[in-house]
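Q: May I have one protein plus its fold?
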Amino acid sequence: MAEDLSGFSMLELFRLEAESQTAILSAGILAVEELQRSPQTIESMMRAAHSLKGAARIVGLDPAVRVSHALEDCFVAAGKGLFLVRAEHADLFLNAIDFLSAIARADDALTPDSPWAPKATSLAAELSEMLKAPDVDATTTGAPETAVAAPSRQSPLLEQSGPAGKTLSSDAKSAIAAHDKNDAPLIAAAEVHSAAQMTVKTIEQFDRVVRVSADSLTRLVGLAGESLVETRQLRPFVDSLLTLRSSQVDLCDTISLLEEKMRSQDVSLPVPLAALLARVRERSDACLVSLTKQAEDFESFARRNEDLSGRLHHEVIASRMRPLADGIRGFPRLVRDLARTLSKQARWELRGEQTGVDRDILDKLESPISHLVRNALDHGLESPQERQMAGKDLVGTIRLEARHRAGMLQITLSDDGRGIDIEQLRSKAVTRNLVAKQVADQLSEVELLEFLFLPGFSTKENVTEISGRGVGLDVVQSMVKAVGGSVRVATQLGRQTTFTLQLPITMSVIRALLVNIGGEPYAFPLTRIDQIIFCHHADIRTVEGRQYFQRDGVSIGLVMAAQILETSATASTADPMPIVVVSDRGQQFGMIVDAFLGERDLEVRPLDPRLGKVPDINSASLLENGNPVLIVDVDDLVRSIDNVLMGRRLSRVEFERLAEQSRKRKRILVVDDSITVRELERQLLQSRGFAVDVAVDGMDGWNAIRGTSYDLIVSDVDMPRMDGIELVSLIKADPLRKDIPVVIVSYKDREEDRLRGLEAGANRYLTKSSFHDETFLNTIIDLIGEPTS
């Protein structure tokens, strides 16, 4: 479910959305400029432009609507193969994106005599003219994927460096330029191959590259992981053979001992029995020899296969890795431009730029690191005058270091600025009523620094376009935790501030601690464990019915893991007791487990999406013996522990009573990927008295519908993961939910769009212009009546 944005105005929401959508557009244009024109890139830009257009229309920002609409037209045409997005178009596209970013931040954008209209008209006209130029010949019109993905014949191919960072020779340039004689917009596949062949000859140490889709690579990782798990299951068979061999050795030794006893006591057997005993000894010896050979051969076979599967798995994982430098190329420019804006001097230092990072994690790193860099420049580094007075170098340093440590990726961002004033932080927390003064006075530095990650918390008095709104560090922590990592901050007043991000190297495999809880194995990601300890019974204290223990002067609440995970508890008599210490946003708890089972590299396997969100569980994996193991969701776990200790976990009877009360107030689910539209619809419905939940896309909405009873659903059409038509179809195909009224609210106002929505099962189809009169609310009341019953 989406976060609560009710405290934001429509214009603030538009600004937030513009920031995220223009970032998507910029990334797409830069990809095009590097000749990476995938259908996914074009589609993401089209969706971003479409969302921006809708959000701008909501707030009445007509200049932004015109430019967004012109951009959307370009990307729609590109998606259909009617227009080829070229590298030389980048400047115009980036100008339009910069315009959208600027108008979103402008205070005079909504004034009657807004100065933005002429520029919007000019940009929209230029984009329209660009579309009119013939760009795709008749042979490619029917193949949109070729038009999107094929490389251009224009000069960027000659201007850019070749593979391995080497510049193309003049012969290679001439060879490529020879194909430009007809000035055709696309290079045929045979021509590409020919030009590439001529180019490769001029470049030394050329690395051959093959394009593989991300989905295909993900499946390959999964298969390699399964192969590794299956191969490891040979180990128990080897152990069984070795055990059998040991038993056979004991049997042979017993027979030999029997013969020796008989000889020592001069016991003679009848000839038939003596012959039979000799035959038993010979057969036993022969079985031992054969069993020893089979066990050695099978152990060798298992070892070779395990080694082979391990190397295969390692190579597949390595194919997903990219150097950290690939994800932070824009930061030197960011530091330079932002420092100039703030009238400061700063240098950017990067260490460990070739550190390998999973591409999925790398894609998510840019935003949190960008927030940290902006904070370092705005909050951390002093002005040249302040640095001179403090005896520092006039040029401040922002340093990013990356390395692999203990099977994890550790990224450290530090600055040599003014640091964080802990006492000011303590005072701010008290002023904002986040903590009582008596409690704040007892908080340690580490505990106080956790306040920085609270939503809306900022130590800066003045809000600027760079910082001061208190959303940056909250976003950083959310993004880092989304990939299973953690973030910590340390500071020295007047000297430096350091943020440390601890992340899994890959999202496909995690390093985890296995524990036994209620007779079942569970896995805790190492990145989310503060420490593991053994605690003696005598060290546990009880206050007001709650147990805790002391560690390094800090009181840590203590709970039974079996109670939180609702498994069958075992009577723990171990002394000392094994405890896993976890934390989230300043809350730290110790979980008593039955036993530590050691560390493992686990192949992460997502749970079936039909299960929705399983409480306290993130994903699953398989152990060497093929048994499943659940991987815990530490964030969810900490919230569950807090609810249990604070008595907020409701009994079944109480829950049903509250649920019955809530049904008296009709509840509506709003599903839309635009935060601006979501919030507008929420405010309209709540102002009328309805209870309203929101979801960020169709998939999120479907999960919400299966877990909560709703009187009506309001949905957009164009959304990622699952669009509105699919959502409506799922609802109407579900026997338990088919009678829930569904209202589609979309910008698409064509008759065929309306019919498509109604044929899917929607009860009403409205355009988003209905927000400006009573049509939207009247439709809701017509379908389900007044808010309370």
Q: What stands out?
A: The first helix runs from residue 10 to 33. Residues 1-5, 136-209, 648-660 have pLDDT under 50 and may be disordered. The two ends are 26 Å apart (CA to CA).
